[in-house]
Amino acid sequence: MELSGLSGEVILNTLRQIGPLIIFVIVGVVLLEFGLYLFFSRVVKTKHALPYTLLAPALIALILFMIYPLVFNVLLAFSDLKRSTFGCYSPISTGGCELDHLYGFDYAIKNFTDVFFRIRNGEIIGWGRLLRTADSTFPVLLLRSILWTTTNVIFHFSIGMGLALLMNQKIRFKGLYRALIVIPWAIPGVIVGLTWRQEFHAQYGFVNALITALGGQPVSWLDDPAAAFVAVTFVNIWLGVPFYMVMMLGGMQSIPADYYEAAEIDGANPRQKFLDITMPLLKPIIIPAVTLDVIWTFNKLDIIVLVTGGGPQESTNILVSALYNAAFGTAATSQFGFAAAFSIIIFLILFVFAIVWIVSSGGLKEIYER
Amino acid sequence: MNRGKSLAFLLVFAIVLGSLGVASAQSPMAAVKLVIWSQDGDDNNVVLAKQFEVWAEKMAPGSTLEVVQKETEVLRTDLLAAGLAGSGLPDLVLGPNDAIGVFEDAGLLQPLDELFDIAKYPYNIGAAQIGGQTFGVPTNAGNHLMLMYNKSLIKEAPATWADLYAAAKAVTEADPKIQGFAYNLNEPFWFLPFVHGFGGSVYDADGNMTLNSEAWVNAYQFVYDLKFTEKVVPEECDYNCANDLFKEGSVAMIINGDWAIGEYLDTEKSPALGKDNLGLAPWPALPSGERPKPFTAGKFISIPVTTKDAQLEAAVSFVTWLTTDVDAVKAFALGTGRLPAIAEVTVDPATDPILSASNEALATGVGMPADPTLRCMWDSVRPNLEGVMSGTVKPADAAEEAQIAAEDCLDQ
Amino acid sequence: MTSKTAPQTLLTTLQGVIDNPRPVYDSGRRIGAVVCIIGGVLLTLTGSGVGFVFLGLWLGLLLWKPSHGILVIYSVISIYPVLRVISISLRPTSGLLSRSLDIIPPGASFNSFIQLFQEEQFLRWIWNSLTITLTVSVIGVVIASTGAYAFSRWRFPGRRPLLIFLLTTQMLPAGMLLIPIFVIVAQLNLTNSLVGLILAYTSTAVPFSVWILKGYYDTIPPDLEEAAMVDGCQRMEAFYRVILPLSTPALSIVFLFNFLAAWAEFIVAKVVLQANTVMTWPLGLNELIGTFNTDWGKYAAGSVLVTLPVLLLFMWQSKYLISGLTLGSVKG
Description:
Chain A is mainly alpha-helical. Chain A folds into two domains: about 1-75, no CATH class; about 140-370, MetI-like (MetI-like fold, Orthogonal Bundle), CATH 1.10.3720. In chain A, about 70% of the residues lie in helices and about 5% in strands. Chain A contains 16 helices and four strands. In chain A, a hairpin with a 2-residue loop joins strand 3 (about 115-120) and strand 4. By secondary structure, chain B is α/β, with parallel strands linked by helices. Chain B has two domains: about 20-140 and about 295-365, Periplasmic binding protein-like II (D-Maltodextrin-Binding Protein, domain 2, 3-Layer(aba) Sandwich); about 145-295 and about 370-410, Periplasmic binding protein-like II (D-Maltodextrin-Binding Protein, domain 2, 3-Layer(aba) Sandwich). Chain B contains 14 helices and 13 strands. Chain B has helices spanning about 1-25, 40-60, 70-85, 95-105, 160-175, 190-195, 215-230, 240-245, 260-265, 310-325, 325-330, 355-365, 375-390, 395-410; strands at about 35-40, 65-70, 90-95, 130, 135, 135-140, 145-150, 180, 250-255, 280, 295, 300, 365. In chain B, the strands form four sheets. Chain B has a five-stranded mixed β-sheet with strand order 2-1-3-12-6. In chain B, strands 8-9-7-10 form a four-stranded mixed β-sheet. In chain B, helix 6 (about 190-195) packs across helix 7 (about 215-230), helix 7 (about 215-230) crosses helix 14 and helix 10 (about 310-325) crosses helix 11. By secondary structure, chain C is an all-alpha fold. Chain C is built from 15 helices and no strands. In chain C, helix 4 (about 65-90) packs across helix 15 and helix 9 packs antiparallel against helix 12 (about 250-265). Chains in contact: A-B, A-C, B-C. Chains A and B meet through helix 3 of A and helix 3, helix 4, helix 13 and helix 14 of B.
């Protein structure tokens, strides 16, 4: 019997694939821990035998699934892998290979300079084009990433904080409001992206239908570069507000009511109460939440890919979506070497930012203290 | 007693097994599992799968074909990535001819000259030939864009663009809910025919890619006027939108390719169309009297380098049968509303007016080159065409920018 | 004509209320609300649509009780797209592209749901997603639970660099792992198997899980294990007997978040999975609105079926989830 593609055979087949994997992991972890513990305590005789043992499975998983791919990525940045040199790198290709070496510093230098500069006959003639239009250059994409990130974070924060303040009063239907407002958070990103893309359709989406019903002029959301950027930013703001609302509300509810009562006795107005009590006490929540949000938003790829695909005219790309489009998108010439170099540069930008931000704000400093 | 019973059972079992073995020995080939990546539409893939069953029953009982649908860009990236990894390539690839150039360039396709009788495909095999070798056999000729109209809304196909505008406006005037005309405005494949119509082409006389000649500028200007001056098309309408509107009768005329005909003839999928209402015609003429010329080629089946031995043998046998057996070609080409790629099968205007109209439109086209650099043209034109169609880029600038982008692309 | 003048009329009516100095007493706001509601009703009667009644009602509420006014409008913004998807899924097959704003479409039917099950392999997509996500979640919890404990309780050489590395992994651009992971999965010949995607998801699940669990263990006083060890337990026994049971909330949060992250993942699945037989539901739904056919009805029906369980879980357990998330990523 088969129902909608699912049958007993399919289920058995899946279990046959997955079962051994789970057993392998669990048994592997147990055996590994025993073996390593004996090794560390008897052979190496370190006093840290137990923590190292406990750490080993996670470490092995990290090395296999995180460090190895990252090293591989760096290696790619030192290669000249692209469509026309495919024959050299593919184990099965029968195409001729015209490269005399596969990996080298010369390739890396070219890949990394190509991210920034457009070079013709050994001369720099402008900013390098990461995709196909004159605007898809590094500085433009960086500025757009920054604009995208700050706009999103500011709106996430202010709307989320505003809603949390409203809900932190004695107000009826609080549970209902909260349940409704967290909804965007609970909807899978694919559905959010694809649905909003349809809803921003100039003729058949509800956004324009609503605008026309209220007497406005319809906007071609997905054909006009500026409107498309507004649309995709709106979707991401819509998506991110619940996270802040929930965080801030949680934080506010843990602030003892006495503080406010005492402040009221001293004659503090609501504004003073917010600035002098709520904000400072929420700081331990605000800083990590903003830090995480900045990183997440800067790296947010799926919403842009799903809603606008980076278009029209490649005008809604930020750095990460340009990277995705350069490697896998429509205008790609499958320049994996270049894309790998590009990805390393994006990572470095984020890393430098994170260090500066974490050090200056004191957020996430617990790793050092504990 | 027990032992006797089980012995008897074993004996029967052995006989059954033996007879099965004999049965399968009679068929020429062992059962195989083939995978094909297809860029064709869903409905056509269903026909393809059915055709495979017909072939398998005769030639290799028990064989299965898994049809994996992949749209153009996905097909391209997935195949390249699989090639890079060295595994995961399908046994067969069905797609438009411009994909062949890319895959051949990457060294992922087998030359087919030794495996197939190339002389059987007289019309369009050239679109799959690179450097004197053949890398794909056509399942059909065509893949060309033409004017399609709903006869219940438009009595006669417009002969010129002026006629088309007038007809489109008349339709909307009669019923504001119905749009006169729609097509995939932002897709270069729909734009190239205009360029050809204005006398331009992708490569100049010396074979250099030239995307900024006067013909290109005129073509950008023409599609700009079509949208912003004549205002006969919906403000924002991609392939799916135009296709859906046409099927439900909300748009009177569209431009689409022969691959969609099968779906339009099916009244269950296209309630407003069917064979009584679907009209096909060549592109209307431009003011100069020239018609826009669509690219023509067809869909081709290619075989990746990893397909070997029994798989290869079965694949070649199946594809040979699918593309040269008269009944099979009738089923997979004509049955899906497309034109045959072999001389043995012809279209009779009396019995099949729709296909013969499609054939007529095909005659107005120009052959699409298999050159892998064509990819650079598509990629470079797309964002600039989008710019013109959103009114943010001037036609002359679009042509210049596309040229620069194409040179960049060729350089990489 | 009415549709253009209607909002203007409404605005002028409101202008009077807004321009007046803000009423000090609630009665002033109530008067404003009543005026708005009457204005809205009148506008509807003159043929400008139900929307204006709602608009009028809302403006009334906003003036009467501003907090409720804002919360109501934001709740509507949150939930309206969801209602739209439900609405599309209920539309009869034809006319999927429609300008209508009705929530319950005329001629509503469950056709799209039936078609989804009959014509698409919907259950198989769900099954594939379910096995992948459950496996990733189990592996994530198993591997991370002990590792996080080590980070929380011991000061060993290499601890700080490792923690910083874990944090750094959260900053990796999505595209950075995409190319190498694809190549690795393909080299292992796992592009047609569920295992390939499981491995790919594990790479992000493990650091995240370790991070959240470490944060939670930190909040459990070490005295608890020490007390257990005084009672004669070994260190590991104390961990299994005392810490793990105490950490059930955190473990289930980690499990749930790994589950939710993998459940809805699209980009990696799109790059890594190739065979139709292992397609997850995000790929399946995306396919439904692919190049050659737009089955908005089936897409919407699938979205509703996939989203509702998660949504109900969220609304039912939102407090619990929130406390869990606060524990992990904030106190981290």
